[in-house]
Design a protein that fits this description.
Strand content: under 5%
Largest sheet: none
Distance between the termini: 59 Å
Shape: extended
Order of helices and strands: HHHH
Length: 85
C-alpha cells in the first residue's frame, strides 16, 4: 500500500511584532478608526500607484461592479469614481 505524506512546511516562526498586531482589537467598519485607517491606506496607495484603493478596486473589476443607487455619501463617491474610470 502506498503511503501518502503531507509535505507542507513545518512550524514557521512569527516575529513578535506580528503576534502583538494580531492580538490588537479588530477595527470595525462602522467606527471612526476604520475611516482613518481607510484614509491612510488610500492615501498611501495613491502615492504608490497614482490611484486610491477604491479607484483601484473599481478598475480591477471594470464594468462588472454592481453598484446600486442606494442612499449615502459613500455610494455617491463610488458612483462618481465608477463613472470617471
Amino acid at each position: 500500500m502506498l503511503k501518502k505524506y503531507l509535505l507542507a512546511p513545518g512550524p514557521t516562526p512569527v516575529p513578535p511584532e506580528v503576534v502583538l498586531a494580531m492580538a490588537a482589537p479588530v477595527v470595525l467598519h462602522r467606527t471612526p478608526e476604520f475611516g482613518e485607517l481607510l484614509r491612510r491606506v488610500s492615501d498611501a496607495s495613491a502615492k504608490l500607484f497614482g490611484l486610491s484603493a477604491l479607484e483601484m478596486a473599481l478598475r480591477q473589476f471594470g464594468h462588472e461592479v454592481p453598484l446600486g443607487r442606494g442612499p449615502g455619501a459613500a455610494q455617491e463617491v463610488l458612483l462618481e469614481m465608477y463613472r470617471n474610470n
